[in-house]
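Example 298.
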Amino acid sequence: MFDTLSDRLSGIFTKLRGKGRLTDADVDATAREIRLALLEADVALPVVKAFIHAVKTRARGAEVSQALNPAQQIIKIVHDELVGVLGGEARRLQFAKHPPTVIMLAGLQGAGKTTFAGKLAGLLKGQGHQPLLVACDLQRPNAVNQLQVVGERVGVEVYAPQPGSGVGDPVQVARDSVAHATRAARDIVIVDTAGRLGIDGEMMAQAAAIRDAVEPDETLFVIDAMVGQDAVATAEAFRDGVGITGVVLSKLDGDARGGAALSVRHVTGQPIMYASTGEKLTDVDVFHPERMASRILG
Ligand code: GDP
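Predicted structure in complex with guanosine-5'-diphosphate:
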């Protein structure tokens, strides 16, 4: 991810090397090139506009440092703005005062929710928690089974309706799972919900009903970082339809252009909390804006 953007930016910075000082014309030309590089990386237009405005203002401003040459100054400004676009500080999970902490996952089908549910359960178990995974995707025939496989791999119990029990209501499953967690002394409940291939009113209504039933402490929106410009509409729909408290970027190991990763914080107003970086259940990291910005700048 971000290889093209990294290459483009480093090409732009190279052109500034050897310049004694930057004229306004240099700043404008550089800003134009950065703008193009971001747009080509599929970063959403409002994000690009805000980014370029900040870069120009700071580069023209008086913050001329003796220690940095013009190229280094621009790199520093772009780095700082990238960190800002990615959310500034990393944010940790908010735990409930009275357990269990309920974490609901929402997102489109194929975004990586079920995989991330397993990854998060594994992470939290490794920190000494006793998580419970809950299968509320009763739409896709194989979804419950997929979560059970994932749960088995990380050694975490999966709460799901018994086959043939007649319980086909995901809201009921979600509600019952919290009661079960309390009885079984699980301190974290991770609720995997059903997605669709596109934005769908019924899916949103179901996710909202599950949310109302379990009152999650965190509602994490899982988005495939490879989706490009569609990310904005999807993120807005989940922000408005379900309400989200954090974002999980999945498939950051892919070779797409990465615009979703750079747009979703701005669009949702919520922090990116985790990065999912592969198909293995250990391929997950707490998201650090600073590290990601440094990686993009190479
Ligand atoms: P869900 O429909 O949102 O629950 O999505 P899944 O968890 O079933 O993931 C959809 C597909 O993406 C599966 O084939 C996963 O193995 C794959 N996947 C999930 N997360 C990642 C990731 O971080 N990197 C890669 N390369 N593949 C992933």
